[in-house]
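Project standup — Tuesday

K.O.: blocked on the structure for the chain from last sprint. Re-posting the sequence here as requested.
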Amino acid sequence: MSEIDAAPALAIEGLTKAFGGLIAVNKLDLVVGRGEIVGLLGPNGSGKTTALNLISGVLQPNAGQIYFAGHDVAGWPTHRVARLGLARTFQLVRLLDGMSCAENVRAGLAFHRPLLTRAELEASETQLLARVGLAGFGPRAATDLTYIDRKRLELARALALRPRLLLLDEWLAGLNPSELLIGIELIRSLKQEGLSILLVEHVMDAIRSLCDRCVVMSNGRKIAEGTPEMVLSNDAVIEAYLGAPLDA
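H.V.: unblocked you, prediction finished:
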């Protein structure tokens, strides 16, 4: 086994990002093991999405290390991090709305080296759309999709990168109860295939069902880490979410 294969999927040390006088992420340490789903939790404004933006290269940190695929990728541009095998979805779904579903997936497949042949592209597009529940949707315009199908398409495009690590930013938010069950099973199946996942989520049923461990942030800092049961019963976590301890 190579050193890369033996290392965690992601290891963050002392990650810090400030916007003027506001420290959005403050000396964050976090590890995602291989084949593990780690939940990144916290109230709105706690720094979760900023942390994902730092990991994926959307933002550059002021300090800290981000070890991924044998490299410290802190400060790398997004396309370089993506080519190492990191993919993500966004809190607000980002699609190429002027394109079809197949063309959206092809945008992810374009990162493959060597480049895929036309036949390989078409076969991969078909397989990926079916994988997320969009079989037969290839010719449809992205703008014509329902909310959950837009989320599915964004996930298919992320999976087109053949990622080692997938960052999901509130991918389950806004789904109705039946859609939520489908979404949870889809994410669970990705883990069963060996994918490592860092999951930002507020849906507690999903957190309890999916996460091996959770890291909780508040005001940019990590305040708790452990199993879902441990962190969701932690007094500091309850206070961060509710604004006061239960016995206050």
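K.O.: great, moving the ticket to review. The CA atoms of residues 46 and 127 lie 37 Å apart. The chain has a mean pLDDT of 93.
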